[in-house]
Design goal:
By secondary structure, the chain is mostly helical. It has 2 domains: 48 residues, Ubiquitin-like (UB roll) (Roll); 235 residues, Up-down Bundle (Receptor-associated Protein). It contains 16 helices and 3 strands. The longest helix is centred in the C-terminal third of the chain and has 59 residues. The protein is elongated. The chain starts with a strand and ends with a helix.
Length: 402
């Protein structure tokens, strides 16, 4: 996917600009025409040098900005004045610079949503479309408050999943480091000591550990090189469409992690969709945004399939049931929401329920992983220690017999 900078004219002739990722310029023009815009120019976005430690903008920065912006607008302050105050008071200098650029764009005649759309790495499609809906409906302050609540819930959900993964990854990393040190530094000392004692043939477990130590000491540079090359190849494969699709599909099928990720998918989709529909975004646009923010290409493909079916006149529940991405209960509740005309409220209730389900699933996964990690550490490191002490026990037994 390549980023393209586009300019187009709306229904009333106003000039709009933005950035869009697509396979080519033709795809950008086709998507603009679907949005009832007349393309003026489409060209590739120039390469920009991004230095994370000098230009990073955290989600918390955007949440604080959104809440303060909503409060100021609700108080009756003009948008330009709000942006001027928030840009000067921002603790993040890089974010403050971006807000000043947004203010200058608004002063130049762009709408707030178009001005925000010029910074797609900071303000995503969901943010920009909700702001546009708020501007069109004259309820920008309420939309911003709703957007801030959505971002806080999404950030909380992401933090839960990341927190659950930190423990096993750190344990495996520490175990690998300890085993490497034992095999390369400690085991050779024991081997030399056994040779000096000349106690004859060593027990089989001890011989195995010593051979593994020799192999690791000899092939360690090759192993490190293999891991680096393997990581690079894996990264390149994940950049391809088919590679990413297969990897994301595998994640959803994993024994322990898969069910948790599926609950996260349901919670994220229903929360995003409910927020967009409650803010007045059309259902087809809302589904497209949900697909882009799904975080999983398999889920994105399923959502886009549902969008295509809905554009042909079908309801939402039927194609979602066909994709089998959502549990039957969720599909039935979405169908009820469509029939009663309260789909946004139903989606929000589903999101609340599944966010609690994620909490329970993460706690269960952590409680399952902890004993497995302890057994793994005890087996590997404890086995090595016992193997090294077996010859010492045999020597002590021989001395006692003598």
């Amino acid at each position: 996917m390549t980023a393209f900078v586009w300019e187009a004219r709306g229904r009333t002739g106003e000039l709009k600009t933005g950035v869009m990722e697509a396979e080519g310029a033709e795809a950008v023009e086709a998507r603009l025409k679907q949005q009832m815009l007349v393309p003026v120019s489409v060209h590739k976005q120039p390469l920009q040098l991004n230095i994370p430690f000098t230009s990073g903008v955290k989600t918390t920065d955007i949440v604080v900005f959104t809440r303060m912006f909503a409060t100021m607008i609700d108080s009756g302050l003009p948008i330009v004045q709000c942006l001027d105050i928030l840009s000067s008071q921002s603790d993040n200098k890089a974010f403050g610079k971006i807000l000043r650029q947004v203010k200058e764009s608004v002063e130049g005649g762009l709408t707030l949503s178009d001005a925000l759309g010029k910074h797609p790495k900071i303000f995503d499609d969901l943010f920009v479309n909700l702001v546009a809906a708020g501007e069109a409906g004259g309820i920008l302050d309420g939309i911003l408050q709703r957007l801030a609540v959505y971002m806080e819930k999404a950030m909380k959900l992401k933090r839960r999943v990341k927190g659950a993964m930190v423990y096993p990854i750190s344990i495996v990393g520490i175990a690998a480091l300890v085993v490497t040190i034992l095999l390369t530094k400690v085991i050779p000392v024991f081997e030399k000591m056994f040779k000096d004692f000349g106690g004859g043939a060593l027990p089989m477990p001890t011989q195995v550990v010593i051979k593994v130590s020799h192999a690791l000491a000899h092939y360690l540079p090759f192993i490190v090189g293999f891991l680096i090359v393997g990581g690079f190849v894996m990264r390149m494969v994940l950049r391809t469409k088919n590679g990413r699709l297969k990897f994301d599909g595998l994640l959803l099928k994993l024994p322990v992690l898969g069910p948790v990720l599926r609950k996260v998918v349901v919670a994220r989709f229903t929360r995003t969709m409910g927020t967009l529909l409650a803010s007045g975004v059309p259902i087809l646009d809302a589904l497209e945004i949900c697909g882009k923010t799904a975080g999983n290409t398999v889920v994105q493909a399923g959502i886009m399939y549902a969008r295509a079916q809905i554009s042909e006149g079908k309801d939402m529940a039927t194609p979602l049931a066909t994709t089998q991405l959502m549990p039957p209960m969720v599909v039935q509740m979405i169908g009820v929401g469509e029939q009663t005309g309260a789909l946004d409220t139903m989606l929000s209730k589903i999101a609340d329920f599944y966010e609690e389900e994620v909490d329970v699933a993460v706690a269960a996964m952590t409680s399952l992983i902890e004993p497995l990690m302890m057994v793994f550490l005890g087996t590997v490191i404890g086995g090595m220690v016992v193997a090294m002490y077996l010859p010492i026990f045999e020597m002590a037994g021989n001395l006692k017999s003598a």
